Amino acid sequence: MQAHLRPTPIIATARFLKEHNLPPINRFDAATRMQVLRAALQPGSMLLRTPDGDVLNGPALMVIAFELVRLPIADRQSITRMMMIVTAAAHGHRGDPAVARKLASPEAMSRFRRLIEQASGSSAGGVGLFLEEKQTEDPTAALMRAIDTGSLPSKKNGGGSPVLLGRR
Fold first, then answer.
1. Helices 106-119 and 30-41: angle between axes, nearest 10 degrees
2. For residues 142 and 42, what is the distance between their CA atoms, to the nearest angstrom?
């Protein structure tokens, strides 16, 4: 399965960390924590490469960030549902916006972003575990950012995604 189509786990288990050849999260130094938080604040614009050369994909990055900021499980579930809805929309699947709002709370993403900003308030020096690589933002990440910041055009003014709103 393509990495960007995998569901985002909600807990970074020992198996998850072993699959990505990462140490336990409580052993991440301050610089490594900052790398993950910076990448989570700018989804799609930065890749984190592990010491083995593997890229930490979006779902893996998110679950590590969930753990670092101790995001409540209900918010983790809501964010992962939102990511699945956005991915489905990006692949042309129609959805009912009312159902999407029931399944995924946009407020959860705002709380997550606020927790990341609070946690990354103190800058850490040093070299982290990951190699950071800039990349061009993908459309799914841009849509997630628009949802988080509330800059997505509303249905009232005739805007919005035709796929998310059930129009083509």
1. 150
2. 10
